[in-house]
């Protein structure tokens, strides 16, 4: 399914002109390591560190869900970079990023995995990308959210056709070393390019 994605990502420079005011802006850290780590309030508690990940749906650690007293139910398996992951379902009353609030929403809860050590306690992504224009300003460490109805862009950026695959993965077509490739756009990856062994062979 080809979509007009509301997600935009560029390195801000003087050549970029934005003709809309963001509905919210959030500072992030970790850009130099290829990660976007932001603070979010969950159910009016926190803030807690989350990774903003274009390759993920909204996820919280099971430990955080229990700490918040959120009701955990059901089990399912999702596809992740390292393979299948067992998850549960949690309903949160609210997720706040600065002045931006997402109301009652269902998210996934994961036990262990990437949340076993001190650091981020979850991931935020698709549910925000599907509703807002998201600008990642690596130069200034800011994540800006815009209303699609009033957003416009002028600059030297290039528009790319994008497809949404299973589990809401954002996928673009490209060429790597002269070979056609299907590439996932994933701001949660700490490497600029990851190639699977099958493709390399």
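-> sequence recovered:
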């Amino acid at each position: 399914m080809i979509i007009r994605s509301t997600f935009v990502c560029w390195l801000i420079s003087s050549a970029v002109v934005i003709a809309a005011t963001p509905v919210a802006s959030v500072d992030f850290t970790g850009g130099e390591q290829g990660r976007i780590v932001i603070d979010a309030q969950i159910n009016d508690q926190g803030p807690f560190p989350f990774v903003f990940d274009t390759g993920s749906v909204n996820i919280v650690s099971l430990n955080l869900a229990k700490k918040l007293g959120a009701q955990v139910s059901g089990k399912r398996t999702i596809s992740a970079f390292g393979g299948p992951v067992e998850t549960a379902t949690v309903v949160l009353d609210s997720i706040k990023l600065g002045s931006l609030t997402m109301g009652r929403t269902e998210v996934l809860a994961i036990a262990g995995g990437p949340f076993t050590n001190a650091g981020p306690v979850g991931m935020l992504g698709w549910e925000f990308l599907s509703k807002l224009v998201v600008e990642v300003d690596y130069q200034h460490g800011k994540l800006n959210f815009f209303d699609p109805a009033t957003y416009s862009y002028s600059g030297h950026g290039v528009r790319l056709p994008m497809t949404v695959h299973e589990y809401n993965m954002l996928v673009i077509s490209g060429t790597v070393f002269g070979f056609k490739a299907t590439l996932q756009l994933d701001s949660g990856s700490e490497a600029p390019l990851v190639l699977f062994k099958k493709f390399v062979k």
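The mean pLDDT is 80.
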